[in-house]
Amino acid sequence: MNTIERNKIDYGIDAPGIRNGMFVIAVFGGIILGVTNFAEINWLKNTPIISVLFKLFGITIGLYGSFMGSYMTYCSRIGKLKTRDILLDKVGKYIKWDEINMSLDVGCGKGLLLIGAAKRLSNGRSLGIDIWSANDQSNNSQSATIENAALAGVSDKIQIQTADARNLPYENDTIDLVMSHWVVHNIETETEQIKCLNEMYRVLKPGGAIILADIQNVSKYKQHIQKLGATKIEFDDGGFEAKIMSVLSGGTYVPQSLICVKPK
After folding, report:
1. Whole-angstrom distance, CA of residue 64 vs CA of residue 74
2. Taking a C-beta distance cutoff of 8 angstroms, is the pair 65, 141 a contact?
């Protein structure tokens, strides 16, 4: 990861409302702990068991909120850049970067994969589409993406537009590399998510590759893409981290990824 990129380019906080909510939970836990300590002197001095239970509750939700909020911040600021570089490195196993004429970042946001791909392309173009939802990523906008591309020195290699992932504005079999990071789960229903996957596969050239990383349902995405005919599927189940985070998040955060190829 380039030092300039890490220090200057802002790829946003993912799910900022949820991240901020976690820190609110942490503060609430601290308030419960403080109130309980005060109440021990005034109201709970004769019922120590109740006092202990309230303290344990305050400590538990305080630690949980602090950890989850901090973890989400880490993932947004550092973790997703590491994931991006790992995934883009793997692309070379399936398709040569100097043979890629067009890559497409579906739900590009502030340019995480869009810019990462642009920096690796020899002569190709890195395309990106998004509906620019600030609920899914903080300060998400076309202007922010353009600014990030300029900071990364790839303004001449990118092209972005507003478009829906379920109706991509490209012809069949035209994109060499299709990418998506933490996007598909934001589409409300499974039926609509399938439309997105169908579109990604439709625009992909035979011999081209798809990179897809998400925090939910990646194994289901893998099964559907297999039905569409994809081959050479490499699935990363997220290992120990994904298992732990699945438990802590009630199954709502399970970071996994896949890479696959559309046969010629």
Report:
1. 15
2. no
9 burial (CB, 10 Å; 0-12 / 13-18 / 19+) is buried
Domains in the chain and their CATH numbers? 92-261 (3.40.50.150)
Residue keyed to tokens 């001095």: 45
- Does residue 213 contact residue 141 with C-beta atoms inside 8 Å? no
**Residue matched to tokens 């503060």:** 27
Are 129 and 169 in contact, with CB atoms under 8 Å apart? yes
- Phi then psi for 180, rounded to 5 degrees? -155, 135
Packing angle between helix 190-203 and helix 218-228, nearest 10 degrees?
50
Asked if residues 225 and 197 have their Cβ atoms less than 8 Å apart, the reply is yes
- Taking only the tens place, the pLDDT of each residue in 100-154 is 999 999 999 999 999 999 999 999 999 999 999 988 899 899 999 999 999 999 9
pLDDT band for position 7 (cuts 50, 70, 90)? low
Can you tell me the distance from the alpha carbon of 170 to that of 159, in angstroms, rounded to the nearest whole number?
A: 13
> Distance between CA 16 and CA 72 in Å, rounded?
9
- DSSP structural state of residue 77: I
